[in-house]
Each structure stands twice: as structure tokens, then as C-alpha cells.
Amino acid sequence: MSHTAHIPSHRKPRRSSAAKTALRAGVAGGVLSTIAVAGAAGSANAAEPVNESTIQMPTLSAAQVADVTEQVAADLQQQAQQDTAAQDAAKAAKKAHAEAVHKAEAKKKAEAKAKAEAKAKADAAEAARASRSSSRTALHAVTTAASTSSSSSVGSGSVASIVSFVKSHIGDAYVMGGTGSSSWDCSGLVQAAYKNVGVDLPRVSQGQSTAGTQVSLSNLQPGDILYWGSAGSAYHVAIYVGGGQFVGAQNPSTGVVERPLDYDQPTGAVRVL
Which helix (H) or strand (E) is 142 found in, with range? Predict the structure, then answer.
């Protein structure tokens, strides 16, 4: 064993590399600052000559070294905080930009969706209109066929023409004082139906209710004029078309319709032909 092994070491503990670096930077900064102050003071005191013997390096106390070190550390910490704040601001700006782009895309998609839905609704409405038009065409064809069949049952001639005429105008509008060609009041339609076969009737219901031979409701024939009210003062007229049905311009709500007799039982009837 060495004869010095029992002697305790008097070495001081080593400082970390970071601490040494900070201390050296602080001391260097302090020395430079002190030299700068000394130089300024020397320039101000021009009366005192400067030579090698008068220049002395400043001696820093431990307190001064600690102050300088603390200041450097504070500056570094402030710089780190500023860097962190700048990074946070950059991240926030990037996030805000991404959110703005996302919102713009979402708005664009919503507008495109709304436009597509509006177009789909318009297409559906157009299809519905086309379907209704097709249905009306089919109904007209059925009505025409029914009129032809009815004409065959009542025979050819004026009566069949009257029945066919009024049935062809089912669906037309009711207009007070209307006499055609697609809007009628009750007596205007009856007058036009008979005029179509060369028979002139009075213009109003009162005159039409007495224009022919009175017949009972149990002995009706197609082409007979039905009236509501009393003969000579009737307030409504229509044409009996056979099968217990009549056609007339009823009112503004229904227009020209075909209805069974029990829908609105007439008061009487007259036969012109």
C-alpha cells in the first residue's frame, strides 16, 4: 500500500460542463465590461498618462461573477421564452389556417349539396308535372272512349252529340257568365251543347227549364235538361247523360263535373229533342 493512501484528498468536486461554460461566459462578459469602463475612464482623464505599468486587469469578486452569471442566465431564459412564444404563435397561425381551409371546404361541400338537392327537387317536380299531364291525357282518352260507348247506347244523332259535347268539357272551369270555350256557367254549357246540334235555347236557367216538354225524373233519357228549383224560376241546370249520371258546370270549386243524380237530386226535367 502507498504511504499516501491514508491521506484524504484535498481536490474540490468537479463542476459540470454546462456550469463551467456559463461561468466562463459570465466572467468573460464581466471582464470585457470592466475593461470597457476602464477604457472610458482613462480617456476621460487625459491628464494622467497611460503606460504599461498603469494598466491593470480588473479583479472580479465572487459576487460580481455570480451577478454576471445570473444576468446571462436570465438573458438566455428570456431568449428561450421568446423562441417558445414565436413557435407557439407559428403553430397557432398554422392551425388557424388549417381550420379556415377546412371551413371553406365544408362550406363548398354544403353549397354543392344544397344545389344538388334543389336540382333533385326541381327534377322531381318536373316529373310530377309530366306524370299529371300523362294522367290527364289518359283520363281524356278514357272519357272519350266512354263517350263513344255512351253514344252507341243512346244511338247516333243529336242526342249522342249533346252527351258527347258536355262530357268532352268535364274538368273545365266554372265562371259566372261563361259561355266557352273552356269556362262555363251552368246554363252556358247547356246552351252550347244544344247549339252544337243546331238547337237554340234561352240563355239562362229560368228559360231553359221550360224550353221543352216536362218529363218525370223516373222517365229520363240522355240529353234531357235537368233543373233545380221550379220550372220557370230554376236556379241551376245540367244535362242527363244516362246511367243515372248528369254533367253540369256546378260551381267555382268543382267546375264541370259528372255526378250521380243522388249527389244533388234535381227538381225536374224537360225534353227538347
Answer: helix 62-154
